Write the C-alpha cells for this entry.
Amino acid sequence: MSMAMDRLALFPPHAATFAKAAFLVVAFVALRTARLVLSIRAERRRSSSSSRSSTPDAAAGPFPSPAPSGVETVKTLAVLGSGGHTAEMMRLLAELDPCRYAPIVYAVAETDATSVPRLRDHVRKEERRDAGGGRGAGAWRGRFPVEEREGERAADGGGFGRVEAATVRRLPRAREVHQSYASSAFATLRSFLAAIVLLWDVRPDLVLANGPGTCVPVIYAAFLLRILGGRECRVVFVESFCRVRTLSLSGRLVYPFADRFVVHWPQLKEGRPLVEVCEVFVPSGGS
C-alpha cells in the first residue's frame, strides 16, 4: 500500500488528491467486501454443520431470525418468478409464521403477467378452504398481493382489506428468455439500479428468493448496500426443487453472497460444504 501511495506523489497536486481519494475508496470497498464474504462463509459453515433435514419450528419459521435481538417481526421481501418458481415460493411462504415474518413485500418482474394473479387465486382458495379459522387462512394473513399502483384499493382481495394486503413492487427484468447475454448487459444494469432503489425504499430484514433471474440483481444490491454500511438485510436463497444434480445459473451467481443457501437434494451438497439440505420446504410428493 505504501508503494502505491508513493506512486501517487508523481501526479499533479489536484490529480494526486483525487487519485488518493479513489484509492482509499477502492481499498475500503475491497476490505469491506472481503470481510463480509468471510463472515457469510463462516455463518453458513456453522449453519450447514448444525442443520439437518428437520421440520422447521412453526413459531420461528424455517430460517433463523435475521432481525436484531429484540425485534419481534421480520420485514420480508419475497422475489417471485414466473412458472414453477412462484408455485415453490407459495409453499415456502406457507412455512413462515405470518405474525413473525411481516409485513411481506413481493418483488416481481415488470413483464411477469402470471405470478401475481396466480398468487391471488391461491390466497383466495386458502381463505375459502379454511374459512373456519384453519391453518391455511392464518398462514396467508397479510399476504394477499396488491399492486403498488392500486394504492388504497385492495384489488378485490377476496375479503382481505388493505391492512391484510401485501405490496407488489415491479422491477425491470434483467434478462428475457432467450435474450443474448451481450444484449442483456444494459437491461441487467437497469435492473440492478432499480433493485438498489427498491431495497433502499422497502428496507427489508430478509430477502427470500428461490431461483428466478429477477432475484440476482436484488441479491447483488442487498450485498452492495451491506458493504456500504446500509441496513443489515439477510438473504436466504432456496434452490428450485427441480435442480437435482446441478445448481441453476441464478444459484451459481449468488452462491457466495447468500447468508443461507438451501437445496433439496443431497447430491447438490457434494463439493459444496456451505449449502444446507432441507426437503421440507418443497415436499417431493407435492404437485
